[in-house]
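Exercise: predict the fold of this chain.
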Amino acid sequence: MTGRSAKAEPAPVGVSEDGTPLALVAELGGACISVQGVTCRLCGDPCEPDAIRFRPLLGGRALPEISNERCTGCGVCVSACPVGALSMAPRPSA
């Protein structure tokens, strides 16, 4: 490692059934341990554009929320999640 943080890349592109390129964004699934009551913020730490924010709850917990507007689709959060609760999905149309 060089000691420098990795720069967020432009949104990766998936391909639809008809061959049309699709921009991707991170999507949170039900396996998220923060949703289940365990304190975890590992997905937000490497998110350079700060697309993952944590909404505070009573008792000191926080729920992750993903901003589709800020998410670059780089996927670094997917690999950071210890339980595989994040995946990449097509960017919702505006």
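Check your answer against the key: The first helix runs from residue 76 to 80.
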